[in-house]
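Supplementary notes for students who missed Thursday's class. We covered one full example, reproduced here. Read the sequence, then the structure, then the short commentary at the end.
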Amino acid sequence: MEQVPAMVQGRRMDVLAHNSLFGALYKNFMQLDPRDRNLARFMFLDPAAKVLFADWASAARDVVAMLRLYAGSHPTDPELNALLSELSKGSDLFRQAWTEHRVLRHSSGKKRLVHHAVGRLTLNYQTFQATGDPDQTLVIYHADPGSPSADALKQLGAWSLSDAPTVVDSGARLLP
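Structure (token representation):
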């Protein structure tokens, strides 16, 4: 699956695995310490997220709403509670959005990105829940055929395939 950015996400928004195109689009999470392979940490604590997301504040609020969904299902998860504490200490927007009590199951939609190498992209995304572990989801992004975003994604894909191998294992337990 090299023509589309794809990743496997765990319940705390941990990035368990991703392909090279996802790494080129967002960030190569597999190069990070396993503890730091997390989309919520990226969104709130990495300045690059504010540049990457064209509508960062809205995307960040969606992340909070997704974490609220996970917290409702796993209220005693110590790693989730540690993550929430870390984000609360590190981000005013996180603290504010957490008090809104919004809950969201992200299953499909659009992401508007501003990538440093290929410019503006509008990508559709779709999530697929693993039947053997509902806390794991496969997230796939794609551009509308023939769009400028499709051309930009192809260009980014050509660069990512020539520069980096596909990453398939983060050391976390993935379903077969």
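Commentary. The two ends are 16 Å apart (CA to CA). The CA atoms of residues 67 and 84 lie 8 Å apart. If anything here is unclear, bring it to office hours.
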